[in-house]
Amino acid sequence: MKQTSFYPGPSTIHPSIPSLVKDAYDKGILSVNHRSSDFMELSFASKSQLRSQLNVPDDYDIIFISSATEAWEILPQSLTSKTSQHFFNGAFGLKWAYMTKNLGVEVIKSPFDVNEYLPVDQINSLADWLCVTACETSNGTMVDLNVLQELFSRRLPHQLIAVDATSALGGVILNFQLADYWFASCQKCLGLPAGLGLLIVSPAAIERGRLLGERSHYNSFLNLVEHARKEQTHYTPNVLNIYLLWRTLAAGPPIVVTDRRLRDRIVDLNSIIESNGTLDWLVSNASLRSPTVITLKTSDPMELKERALSQKMILGNGYGAWKENTVRIANFPAMGDIQFQIFMEWMSNL
């Protein structure tokens, strides 16, 4: 029996990927030049599917980059005049703050606990950007859209909002109008092999880039935008993943259907955990839990992972401060319902 990976990225990919890769090869997609009309058509088709399936606004620009972590770098180097404020409760939000500081930007850190809501009352007036991690992959928390709405409402006129949506984009409903700089990698909820990132930016972010006029780097924001608007890329892109993105989105359901499917799984899993006795949620407040990354406390993570592996299931390690007492389980759309049901039946018998 083939192993099923529940690792929270890279994780299980869409089952159609092998046939789509062959299709891309047969059609010559793998050797398409990123300045050619063929690539421009592919770029437009992929972005059109992102707009229709994920509800990306028509006036937001979509830019292909290498990864979400590249987006960490682009923001301070090209779009921040002096200061950014980072709200975080886990390892990846903290890493984003460190990256920003290392690039010479003044960073205001606003940490909060995994069982607390993001402190929207702590907005610092000096910050150019308010930075939020939508789903913190290290601990399985998520910032509710109502909280993001409140942050949006409380921000000052000069402040823009950036959201790391890496374990959210493609899995849950997002209101893109509530922020100006969204980014994610494709190896999580989008169900693709690693190697492609998406940057989705508002007109206000474009204007901020023009105001600062930064062009000192090869991946400077204005260079990326100008090529994206021609349906090209500034550097040679991952053409295969762009093709796979187009095809998998075109064959998939709207995000509202996917969102409900993942949340229904969590409800079923919660019933099992509550009756289990040996496992517990790291995040005790259910309204703060991510629907896409499940983080469970256990006294012996290694033993639990070994038991899962004996059943051909790969569970994710704990991460950061929770490395020694948790396991992480991906609840991504590419994971089939049958596969997830088998996992839940195994959990119910622990």
Question: Mind explaining what this structure looks like?
Answer:
It contains eleven helices and 15 strands. The chain is of the alpha/beta class. The protein has two domains: 4-12 and 254-348, Aspartate Aminotransferase, domain 1; 17-251, Type I PLP-dependent aspartate aminotransferase-like (Major domain) (Aspartate Aminotransferase, domain 2, 3-Layer(aba) Sandwich), CATH 3.40.640. The strands form four sheets. Strands 2-10-9-8-5-3-4 form a seven-stranded mixed β-sheet. Strands 11-12-15-14 form a four-stranded antiparallel β-sheet, with helices on one face. Helix 2 (37-54) packs across helix 8 (239-251) and helix 9 (255-276) runs parallel beside helix 11 (337-348). The radius of gyration is 20 Å and the shape is globular.
Question: Which secondary structure elements does this structure contain, and how are they paired or packed?
Answer:
Elements: E1 4-5, H1 17-26, H2 37-54, E2 61-65, H3 68-78, E3 83-88, H4 91-102, E4 106-111, E5 129-133, E6 135-136, E7 141-142, H5 145-154, E8 160-164, E9 181-185, E10 197-201, H6 203-212, H7 221-228, H8 239-251, H9 255-276, E11 280-281, E12 293-297, H10 301-309, E13 313-314, E14 316-317, E15 326-330, H11 337-348
Parallel strand pairs: 1-13, 3-4, 3-5, 5-8, 8-9
Antiparallel strand pairs: 2-10, 6-7, 9-10, 11-12, 12-15, 14-15
Helix pairs in contact: 1-8, 2-8, 3-4, 9-11
